[in-house]
Amino acid sequence: GGGDNVVTLLDYGAGNVRSVRNAIRRLGFDIKDVQTADDILKADRLIFPGVGAFAAAMSVLNQKGMAEALCTYIENDRPFLGICLGLQLLFECSDENGPVKGLGLIPGVVGRFDSSNGLIVPHIGWNALQIEKDAGILDDVANRHVYFVHSYRAMPSDSNKEWVSSTCNYGDKFIASVRRGNVNAVQFHPEKSGGKMRKAIEGKKEALMSILTGFASQRKDVGLSILRRFLYPKSSLSKKPAEGKASKLAKRVIACLDVRSNDKGDLVVTKGDQYDVREHTSENEVRNLGKPVELAGQYYEDGADEVSFLNITGFRDFPLGDLPMLQVLRLASENVFVPLTVGGGIRDFTDANGRHYTSLEVASEYFRSGADKISIGSDAVYAAEEFLKTGIKSGKSSLEQISRVYGNQAVVVSIDPRRVYIKSPNDVKFKSVTVTNPGPNGEEYAWYQCTVNGGREGRPIGAYELAKAAEELGAGEILLNCIDCDGQGKGFDIDLVKLISDAVSIPVIASSGAGAPEHFSEVFRKTNASAALAAGIFHRKEVPIQAVKEHLLNEGIEVRVAYI
Ligand code: 1PR
């Protein structure tokens, strides 16, 4: 053991477990990292936040003798909480690059979601749980949304029903959590499922005090409540009646922070007008809308379902030279318990001293600093052009490498297209659309030309072609901007969002142009977008995130309600 307030954490270094660490500390516990198999056997309580691919995780566990120790620990009914892959590994085997043998504690095979009927895979976002039996740690969660991000899942069956504590509907009904005695595992991410805590209860003593005095004031806290119930099983936590009425995968509302150094060298949140971020004054300074960490924290409190940081000058500056950006991620992840995405400058790079960095190293540094997903812009355009030219997946692009190591769900491709009106679809070899509003010369068609380097250079590839190629090369999600609409506040480019969200089976995030809550309901009603992102209206405090959520609820569109 290690004392009353110590959690043993099994982190084999394959991805971002920073948020799990932050959440544990937030709840007043210290962390002891597992170094040897023996540390597992000696743990008082063990958290296993599985990350990365199934096969890679199993081989690390086997090599270090930890697989056997885990089985012993769990068979002895010791307090255990597995998260995501930490649930899947308990099963007999997985189809992920497999079959690959798992720990074999729970009967069943982990298989991929079936996308053949138009189901969007990966399953990313906030979905509802159906409680199947007394799930203990889920007492505060029923009927609320929790955050999932995965492409593989285990299915309930007669042979594993003694384990299944909750299920979730996505395509079919899959296992969302298991429980037997003190052993728990969840497919979703409690550490990313929100968890607003009042400032006063940071730190051990305060956390304990608030536990003892009941936590009526914390009913808003969903994700951290799961960890709290695991960590404080014997305290007299009252059972809260279920609130809310989550029933399916919610549409996400994402706040985006475009970040760059201003002329004084400080990292600021900026915001462009069709990608032009400079004030139209004699100084021509970079528009400054606030501090990245503060704003991210604010948007989290306001109920943003995710927060994205785009390092918009990453295409010319080396991002690992940009230590402030890494620091922004580290600090933001201490207070923001929803997923964080970071983009800008993810590519191979040789610095002034001739040292070469691979895109994978750049991405790894971002993940280590607290990012859950990375987003690739320019480099994905080059990779897609190459793929379309040769028809061969070289496996060498940043997109392919990062998604192979960290999984598709960790890789977003950011598209920056510009609308080009044409007289006839035959004018270009790229996919075009019939536009809702004709062009300046009465054109009825348009194609969407991809750009690189922050919109500065047009490339010979369309948004449609890029999206299809990106999906093929391993992207887990598309962030779809539109230079024409950016910062205009006139609504999303519905023609574009429809084109792309109908073309791929991975989630599409609509971006650029939000000016009012109605623009969000419009994009969700008229297209298959899974999420909508906005920047300017949130930065300028014109429309609070809460107002967007309320509007969507009133329109019958399911969203996560952070606060009830
Ligand atoms: O090419 O891999 O280095 O990535 C660069 C990243 O930076 C890309 O994701 C690209 O979209 C972004 N970027 C580059 N230059 C700019 C710029 O504005 N000058 N920002 C830029 C892109 C678009 C959205 C914006 C929405 C919503 N900004 O992020 O937040 O358009 O805005 P709105 O709601 O105010 O309309 P690489």
Gross CATH architecture of the largest domain: Alpha-Beta Barrel
**Biggest sheet details:** 8 strands, mixed
Could you state the CATH homologous superfamily of the largest domain? Aldolase class I
From the 3D structure, determine the CATH topology of the largest domain. Answer: TIM Barrel
Unreliable stretches: 197-202, 211-219
Query: How would you describe the shape?
Result: globular
* Cα distance spanning the termini: 39 Å
Number of helices: 17
Bound molecules: ligand 1PR
Count of all domains:
2
Which percent bin holds the helix content? 25-40%
Assign the structural class, choosing from mainly alpha, mainly beta, alpha/beta, alpha+beta, or little secondary structure. alpha/beta
Strand order of the largest sheet: 2-1-3-4-14-13-12-9
Question: What is the name of the CATH class of the largest domain?
Answer: Alpha Beta
* Quaternary structure classification: single chain
Average of per-residue pLDDT values = 90
Strand content: 15-25%
Describe the model.
- The protein is an alpha/beta fold.
- It has two domains: about 5-230, Rossmann fold; about 250-555, TIM Barrel (Alpha-Beta Barrel).
- The chain is built from 17 helices and 29 strands.
- The strands form six sheets. It has an eight-stranded mixed beta sheet with strand order 2-1-3-4-14-13-12-9. An eight-stranded parallel barrel has the order 15-17-18-21-22-27-28-29, surrounded by nine helices. It has a four-stranded mixed beta sheet with strand order 6-5-7-11, with helices on one face.
- Helix 15 (about 515-525) links the parallel strand 28 and strand 29 (about 530-535).
- Helix 1 (about 20-25) packs across helix 9 (about 325-335), helix 8 (about 290-300) runs parallel beside helix 9 (about 325-335) and helix 15 crosses helix 17 (about 545-555).
- The longest helix has 13 residues, at about 325-335.
- The model is unreliable at about 195-200 and about 210-220 (pLDDT under 50).
- Ligand 1PR binds near residues 375 and 487.
